[in-house]
Write a structure and sequence with these properties.
The complex is a heterodimer of chains A (about 110) and B (about 110). Chain A has no helices and eleven strands. In chain A, the strands form two sheets. In chain A, strands 2, 4, 5, 9, 10 and 11 form a six-stranded mixed sheet that branches. A five-stranded antiparallel sheet of chain A has the order 1-3-8-7-6, with no helix packed on it. Chain A starts with a strand and ends with a strand. In chain B, β4 and β5 form a beta hairpin. Classes of the chains: A mainly beta (about 110), B mainly beta (about 110).
């Protein structure tokens, strides 16, 4: 079963615009992570936010976490064509194996 | 620094054949994972390992076996392939601290005909 559900499933914006993706989950988590996947490639870790954190920044990325609503958002500012990819949220469980459960992803298209 | 290496990258199997997918990491990570990715379903955990000699079942373990005889290698086996196992398989590793993300391999695209 999928823990995270991303919204929207697909997003198309122009270069320079901001892109916002949302993720909702169902159970208690240790952390929430965002990954990027370019077509036909493996996933690349972008950012991790722990359950006791509310906001985190990394370059043009901003992640928020609201554990009361069981939701997170990823904001990419000043999008570039190279940001075109699928983005996945993944929730880290509270167990000892650091297992991640992935959502179904948001496909972002950034056009020139 | 290679990170996580998966072999092979592509494979076509006939129903009933067996094969082993190899995952190797050079980061001295304790934890390793096998996921499958199917269209519209995200990634689902097949099996995982929290250290050399240990393995455990994930969300979708049926039809697969794994072994972690060496810390750097995590093998995924299909004993009798079925068309439902057509998928892209990803291996990942992590330090397991819950403070850093996974490092993924580039995937193996498997087709079972």
């Amino acid at each position: 079963s999928q823990q995270g559900e991303e919204d929207p499933q697909a997003l198309s914006i122009q270069e320079g615009e901001n892109a916002t993706m949302n993720c909702s989950y169902k159970t208690s988590i240790n952390n929430l992570q965002w990954y990027r996947q370019n077509s036909g490639r493996g996933l690349v870790h972008l950012i991790l936010i722990r359950s006791n954190e509310r906001e985190k920044h990394s370059g043009r990325l901003r992640v928020t976490l609201d554990t009361s609503k069981k939701s997170s958002s990823l904001l990419i500012t000043a999008s570039r064509a190279a940001d075109t990819a699928s983005y996945f949220c993944a929730t880290g469980d509270t167990g000892t194996a650091s297992k991640l459960t992935f959502g179904t992803g948001t496909r972002l298209q950034v056009t020139l | 620094n290679a990170g996580v290496t998966q072999t092979p990258k592509f494979r076509v199997l006939k129903t009933g054949q067996s094969m082993t997918l190899l995952c190797a990491q050079d980061m001295n990570h304790e934890y390793m994972y096998w996921y499958r990715q199917d269209p519209g379903m995200g990634l689902r955990l097949i099996h995982y390992s929290v250290g050399e000699g240990t393995t455990a079942k994930g969300e979708v373990p049926d039809g697969y076996n794994v072994s972690r005889l060496k810390k750097q290698n995590f093998l995924l086996g299909l004993e009798s392939a079925a068309p439902s196992q057509t998928s892209v398989y990803f291996c990942a590793s992590s330090r397991g601290t819950g403070r850093v993300g996974y490092t993924f391999g580039s995937g193996t695209r498997l087709t079972v005909v």
